[in-house]
Amino acid sequence: MTDTVPTHDAAALTRYIETRYHARHRAQLPHLAELAERVEVVHFGEEDVPEGLSNLLHRMNGEMEDHMKKEELILFATIRKGGGPGTENPIAWMRADHDNHRADLAQIRRLTAGLVAPKDACGTWAALYAGLEEFVDDLEEHMRLENEILFPLFEPSELVRD
Q1: Contact between 100 and 64 (Cβ < 8 Å)
Q2: How far apart are the C-alpha atoms of 74 and 83, rounded to whole Å?
């Protein structure tokens, strides 16, 4: 995908993140959790089954929905008004959530042997891992845009971190 990311306009970047990433995550996670459930049930007991993946994806879906709502209703709304004193507080909460999301992505990689499906994987299993790879890439880019481009615009320089 060759999107033009509006990196020099904070309000436009918030809208881009909502339409490009939030909407996409809302579509991806429930579907991926469903695929993971099917793989775990059909292939129960097989060596490479990503046991626990569906539970992780269901939990992530709820946590990310809460995170995205907070961004949309509180942080992004504030940014679109130009920010102001105290904007760094919801940013700090979002950064903490991003740290948790990174830990979840590491767990996905552990459960899926680095997102590599077994050679004899069924179509559902292959689709799950392909979808997970896309989701992981999307979430990592989503967090990078916020952490490295958007958030530093509204944080005192001594608070900026990666």
Answers
A1: no
A2: 11
> Distance between CA 76 and CA 39 in Å, rounded?
37
Q: What CA–CA distance (Å, rounded) separates 18 from 8?
A: 17
Diameter over CA atoms, the chain: 56
**pTM of the entire structure?**
0.90
User: Could you give the CA distance from residue 57 to residue 38 in angstroms, rounded to a whole number?
Assistant: 13
pLDDT tens per residue across span 1-36: 456 878 789 999 999 999 999 999 999 999 999 999
Structure tokens at 131: 């979808």
Structure tokens at 52: 């626990």
Identify the burial level of 67 via C-beta atoms within 10 angstroms of its C-beta, where 0-12 means exposed, 13-18 middle and 19 or more buried.
buried
